[in-house]
Amino acid sequence: MVPSVLPLLALAVPLVAAIGIALLPARDGTTRRTETLHLGAIAALSAVVLALVVEVARGTDVSALGGWLYVDPLAAVFVALIGLIGLLTGLYAWGYVRHDLEHGEIGPRGHKIFHVFFHLFLFTMLLVVTSNNIVMMWVAVEATTLGSAFLVGLYGKRPSLEAAWKYVIIGTVGVAFGLYGTVLTYADGASVLADHEGAILWTNLAAHASALDPMLVKIAFVFVLIGFGTKAGLFPMHAWLPDAHSEAPSPVSALLSAVLLKCALFVVIRYLILTTRAVGADFPQILLMILGFASVAVASFLLYVQKDLKRKLAYSSVEHIGLIALALGFGGPLGIGAAILHAVNHSLAKALIFCGSGNVLMKYGTRDLGEVKGLLRVAPASGVMMMIGSLALAGFPPFNLFVSEFLILGAGIASGHWVVTGLVVLLLTVTVAAFVQIVSGSVLGKAPERIGVGDVGWRALAPMGVLVALVVVMGVAVPRPVARLIEDATAVVVGADRATPIAAPWQKAEPIARLAAPAAPRS
Amino acid sequence: MSGLQLANGLAGLLIVTSLLVITAKRPTTSAFFYALQSLVLVGIFVTLAGVTGSHELYLWAGTSVVTKVLLVPILMTRLFGRLDDPKLGTGERISPAVSVLMAAVVLALCFAVVSGVSLPAVAATKPALAVSLAHFFLGLAAIVTQRNILKQVFGYCLMENGSHLTLALMAAKAPELVEVGIATDAIFAVVILGVLGTQIHRTLGTLDADQLTSLKG
């Protein structure tokens, strides 16, 4: 562990941006200044995040604030996701929120609230993944709910307020379970470790996990899984998710689905590590497999019957989070690696398609799939990108989700879960059918007369173009530096020297000599 | 009576006050009972601090007086006092008698669970530990059984008080900052729920959770 200022900087940038924008007056004349500050802040944040992730990827685990903040490869994957998706959805929001302002969906005050809470939300999520102090981690997860509640309810209409209320109530109640799990874990650690203060740090708990009381560890994991599983959107605690995702402004839907759910999963993975080291892998894996499989099963059918574009995409998130939980449940280096890769891949594709749903809203003014027809004709670039996003989420090659789903199924077979794996393959075909509905009905088809031809502005299209490129690149061949980082993150979870290589099935195998060599020791 | 017995006895009072919070007719009355309950919680902290000699617990008691006995109830009274939904009535799904019966069952179950914990730190305070766990689930039950969205906020507060007591019983020497973090979060949660509740009341003209049903499927 090497002290570094980078984690602090990564937290400071969005926090300062939120405060700065909050201090600007909310008038018509100041919206451009808000936008400038917003764009400057997301650019600065991505630079800091890049520096931080590169530092960790080079083999140095960094810490700050006397060990309260800690970034290892596992955290670095999620920090990178927040930075990247934050940058791209932030850019997308530039055009999208301006469109909302021009069309009277929000006023100058709503414009300001959006930008303040956007950065506050990024801050709280970064705090979740950089926390080494388990209580601070809980506080941060709770703060993500509070930070994003006003984003979900931004439009102030009946459905959006309803969604915001359900989101906060279910979120805080769920996370109260997380608090109980956190308290139990800390109390357990404090009674075992000589140093009371030290028991609050995850790294200390992980180092002494085998000394923890097995019964308490199990109870705590159940509470943690229910609590943070609620935020992650696992069935049956997912009830808030479709409402919040569909009612939030599209760039926020993208952030919620692509990053927030993953932050909650990150916390579950941290506790999975503790629990596995304390009582073995069987207990947590069974629970994760049950919740994961149930999520995939229920979500794939609900996904199919939705008539609202954004609700459909929201259920798709439940399904993919289920797949990730299932992969964690399969376990082993392959399962864990596949889970982390799938988390990354899903983030990219889901951010892309939620931005696409924003374009649909800008063009058609509705999310009803019965009315959205012929996107390819009225907005060709948006149409093509929506099609790519849909095919990627349905799991077609050469897009990225194919690679990680392939690895997940491989992990299922490797761990001997033939029946579960077989059933998941069947369920995935239902998902394919659901996304074919979007492509055949809404992207293709005959456009209504009233919709004029012409795509949305470049501000909305450019960040989507970047996401399309990433979805394809990660689908054709996982770039080496990304694969290395995910392999290192997997090694953190399974506690081995070296993890199974992360690569597409057709990617050239690594030279055996390099694979056989143990990873360089981390400082 | 030893200090620990006193702590266990006070923990019993927590259940009584939480039933009062749940069954009170008006949200502002609930806020008053919530303040009373927090005062009992502070009493437990002080008792435990005296027995264990934990300096941190005195600090907790201090912050709890500021946040839970004063700040949160005052905020709630101010935010909720202006909101009224005459059509809703008491908004209970189950009668107070059933609520009390349910509390008894939850308490019995929690005693059974806690008897299995073998941590030496809590050997003398098992009844209080069982109460803290039961308290947590009572809060959850309150959220499910109340239609008034403001009463649901109190459910969350009860859950939070339950975990807070567990923390004090099991890890009396936790750093003060832990406690401040949890308390601050609770305040923010109440404020945000209050603001959203006000917006819902203004826009939708109701406080009834059963009326919030335009989103389905």
Describe this structure in words.
The complex is a heterodimer of chains A (523) and B (217). Chain A has 523 residues and is an all-alpha fold. Chain A has a domain at 299-523. Chain A is built from 20 helices and 3 strands. In chain A, a hairpin with a 4-residue loop joins β2 (62-64) and β3 (69-71). Chain B has 217 residues and is mainly α. Chain B has one domain (3-91, 100-209). Chains A and B meet through α5, α6 and α9 of A and α5, α6 and α7 of B.
Outline of this structure?
The complex is a heterodimer of chains A (523) and B (217). By secondary structure, chain A is an all-alpha fold. Chain A has 20 helices and 3 strands.
Structural class of chain B: mainly alpha
Helix content of chain B: over 70%
Beta strand % of chain A? under 5%
Largest interface: A-B, 49 and 45 residues
The overall pLDDT of chain B, averaged over residues, is 82
**Which spans of chain B have pLDDT < 50 for at least 5 consecutive residues?**
none
Instruction: Measure the end-to-end span of chain A.
Output: 6 Å
Write down how many β-strands of chain A occur, each being a DSSP E stretch of 2 or more residues. Answer: 3
Overall form of chain B: globular
- What sort of overall outline of chain A do the alpha carbons produce when their principal axes are compared? globular
Overall strand count of chain B: 0
Order of helices and strands of chain A: EHHEEHHHHHHHHHHHHHHHHHH
Query: Main β-sheet of chain A: number of strands, strand sense, barrel status?
Result: 3 strands, mixed
- Based on CA atoms alone, the radius of gyration of chain B comes out at 18 Å
Strand order of the largest sheet of chain A: 1-2-3
Query: If helices are DSSP runs of H or I spanning 4 or more residues, what is the number of helices of chain B?
Result: 7
Specify the oligomeric state: heterodimer
Order of helices and strands of chain B: HHHHHHH
The amount of helix of chain A comes to over 70%
Q: Roughly what is the average pLDDT of chain A, rounded to an integer?
A: 90
Distance between the termini of chain B: 56 Å
